Each structure stands twice: as C-alpha cells, then as structure tokens.
C-alpha cells in the first residue's frame, strides 16, 4: 500500500509548509524514517524556493507537486511554467575556497543532490519538471 497526492501552489514561500506537511504525511504512511522525511522535505522545499525566486522572479505562477510514496521509495515531481531551467546543469560548488572566493549560489542544488537518491529534469510543452526520488535505506 502506498500514499500519493497532487497539489498546486502559487509562487509564494508561505505555501511551502503545506507541501512539507503533505509530504511528511505520505512518507509516514509507508514507514519512512524521520531522517529520510527531513531530507526529502529539505530537497523539495529548496527546489520549490528556487522556482519561486529564480524561476518566477516574483511575477507569480503556479507550481504543481505530485508525490507517490511506496514501501521502497518516494517520488516527488515538481512542475512549473517558469522560463526553462535545468537545475542539473548547475556545476558543483567550490567548497574548498574561502568564503570570500566562492561565488554566490548553487548550494541549494548541491544540497538536493546530496540528500536525494535520484534526480531528473525534463522540459516539455513550456513546462519544467524536476523529479526527486528517495529510496528507503
């Protein structure tokens, strides 16, 4: 038995907690650990915040979140109509240099890569779709 949901939010950071709550509920139903839930929430929150800040740039727009949680994995799909952007094209940040030498940004995508097991991106029909998968440890 699994759990799933689909919801659409506006490009407003204040809507992110509702997504996190639904995600936690779905993952708890199928028995994911607290750590796995927190990692997934963090990645999803970061991905949505990136769409809001960098994609829509305060101009507004919808973001659809679909989640399918099963005993062995959870898959979250985030779809938006912001300008095309492949987050997987963001290079790994320089974590070795001093803070003054590092460029700003890129840590959110790095964080998503660190906590999720699979990440994929596609652009179809004017829409960005990011898929994040967390497998049970």
Q: How would you summarize the topology of this molecule?
A:
Blueprint: E1 3-10, H1 16-29, H2 34-55, E2 62-69, E3 73-80, H3 107-115, E4 118-124, E5 127-135
Antiparallel strand pairs: 1-2, 2-3, 3-5, 4-5
Structure description:
The protein has one domain: Heat Shock Protein 90 (2-Layer Sandwich), CATH 3.30.565.10. A five-stranded antiparallel β-sheet has the order 1-2-3-5-4, covered by helices on one side. Strand 4 (118-124) and strand 5 form a beta hairpin. The protein has helices at 16-29, 34-55, 107-115, and strands at 3-10, 62-69, 73-80, 118-124, 127-135. By secondary structure, it is an alpha+beta fold. 33% of the residues lie in helices and 29% in strands. The longest helix is centred in the first third of the chain and has 22 residues, at 34-55. The protein is globular and about 35 Å long. The chain has three helices and five strands, in the order E-H-H-E-E-H-E-E. It starts with a strand and ends with a strand. The model has no long low-confidence stretch (mean pLDDT 91).
Distance between the termini: 18 Å
Number-wise, the strands total 5
Oligomer: single chain
Task: Tally the structural domains.
Answer: 1
Radius of gyration: 15 Å
From the 3D coordinates, which CATH architecture would you assign?
Answer: 2-Layer Sandwich
Which percent band covers the strand fraction? 25-35%
